[in-house]
């Protein structure tokens, strides 16, 4: 039951999603592209809380129809078009920009902590198995709660500043976590490590997390957005695979000093975003 129930209980959330799926409407763009123009108009009207014949509804629908007509005239974009700068929109540059936050999400070291948090608490900080699980569950609950506030301020302060502040905070926290894990015999160090693991996750959710999932779609031209975003998502999960596979080896080889690596990488994100990141908000 120790591992079966935590896995099985996730079925509950899948069932909730399945039950809500019938209430999800198709996007106006998809409907218009499949010759369901009036349905597309109705969805736009519902989203804007206006009548179907409202001028704003008609305007947005016409924009969608014009875009679809242009795309059909130009044809389906090729992968060569995605990976070249020899276009007016410099697609390769945008693909690399979009991949950046996706990869920063993983290379911040977040899943070196999330995937192995209970193990780290028990093995390196001396907590019991039950206490380790309790602390991990509290940390992940806090993680979920703190994922919401960025949507209240991210457009006001911008993507670049959000991710730079977030990265700097993560770097500082990783330094303290690495230092605390290096000395396992003092209880104060264990408390310090736990506190800054929680704070690290807060910093991560304050900027890196929301920007990583919104930025790519904002910088990609509509014509190649699907393919470009797919590349970004692939880079994200490929990075996740590497981080998760390397972490046990790193912990076994150098112990708590392993987290110095993530501290350095998080610190590098700040100048990378400052010099190469472009702002999309506003």
UniProtKB/TrEMBL annotation:
<feature type="transmembrane region" description="Helical">
    <location>
        <begin position="258"/>
        <end position="277"/>
    </location>
</feature>
<feature type="transmembrane region" description="Helical">
    <location>
        <begin position="190"/>
        <end position="209"/>
    </location>
</feature>
<dbReference type="GO" id="GO:0016020">
    <property type="term" value="C:membrane"/>
</dbReference>
<keyword id="KW-0812">Transmembrane</keyword>
<dbReference type="InterPro" id="IPR003663">
    <property type="entry name" value="Sugar/inositol_transpt"/>
</dbReference>
<dbReference type="InterPro" id="IPR005828">
    <property type="entry name" value="MFS_sugar_transport-like"/>
</dbReference>
<feature type="domain" description="Major facilitator superfamily (MFS) profile">
    <location>
        <begin position="1"/>
        <end position="281"/>
    </location>
</feature>
<keyword id="KW-0472">Membrane</keyword>
<protein>
    <submittedName>
        <fullName>MFS general substrate transporter</fullName>
    </submittedName>
</protein>
<keyword id="KW-1133">Transmembrane helix</keyword>
<feature type="transmembrane region" description="Helical">
    <location>
        <begin position="163"/>
        <end position="183"/>
    </location>
</feature>
<feature type="transmembrane region" description="Helical">
    <location>
        <begin position="7"/>
        <end position="25"/>
    </location>
</feature>
<feature type="transmembrane region" description="Helical">
    <location>
        <begin position="229"/>
        <end position="251"/>
    </location>
</feature>
<dbReference type="InterPro" id="IPR050360">
    <property type="entry name" value="MFS_Sugar_Transporters"/>
</dbReference>
<dbReference type="InterPro" id="IPR036259">
    <property type="entry name" value="MFS_trans_sf"/>
</dbReference>
<dbReference type="InterPro" id="IPR020846">
    <property type="entry name" value="MFS_dom"/>
</dbReference>
<comment type="similarity">
    <text>Belongs to the major facilitator superfamily. Sugar transporter (TC 2.A.1.1) family.</text>
</comment>
<feature type="transmembrane region" description="Helical">
    <location>
        <begin position="133"/>
        <end position="151"/>
    </location>
</feature>
<dbReference type="GO" id="GO:0005351">
    <property type="term" value="F:carbohydrate:proton symporter activity"/>
</dbReference>
<dbReference type="Pfam" id="PF00083">
    <property type="entry name" value="Sugar_tr"/>
</dbReference>
<keyword id="KW-0813">Transport</keyword>
């Amino acid at each position: 039951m120790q591992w079966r129930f935590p896995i099985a209980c996730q079925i509950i959330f899948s069932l909730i999603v399945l039950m809500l799926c019938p209430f999800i409407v198709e996007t106006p763009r998809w409907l218009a592209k499949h010759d369901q123009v009036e349905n597309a108009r109705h969805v736009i009207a519902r989203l804007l809380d206006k009548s179907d014949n409202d001028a704003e509804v008609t305007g947005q629908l016409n924009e969608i129809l014009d875009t679809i007509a242009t795309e059909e005239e130009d044809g389906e974009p090729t992968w060569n078009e995605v990976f070249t700068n020899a276009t007016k929109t410099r697609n390769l540059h945008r693909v690399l920009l979009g991949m950046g936050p996706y990869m920063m999400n993983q290379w911040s070291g977040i899943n070196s902590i999330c995937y192995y948090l209970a193990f780290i608490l028990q093995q390196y900080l001396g907590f019991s198995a039950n206490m380790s699980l309790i602390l991990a569950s509290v940390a992940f609950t806090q993680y979920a709660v703190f994922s919401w506030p960025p949507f209240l301020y991210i457009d006001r302060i911008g993507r670049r500043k959000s991710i730079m502040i977030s990265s700097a905070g993560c770097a500082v926290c990783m330094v303290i976590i690495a230092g605390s894990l290096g000395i396992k015999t003092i209880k104060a160090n264990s408390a310090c490590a736990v506190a800054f693991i929680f704070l690290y996750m807060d910093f991560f959710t304050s900027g890196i997390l929301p920007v990583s999932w919104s930025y790519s779609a904002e910088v990609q031209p509509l014509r190649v957005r699907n393919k470009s975003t797919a590349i970004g998502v692939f880079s994200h999960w490929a990075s996740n695979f590497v981080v998760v596979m390397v972490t046990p080896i790193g912990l076994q080889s150098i112990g708590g000093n392993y987290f110095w690596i993530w501290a350095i990488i998080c610190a590098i994100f700040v100048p990378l975003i400052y010099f190469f990141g472009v702002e999309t908000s506003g």
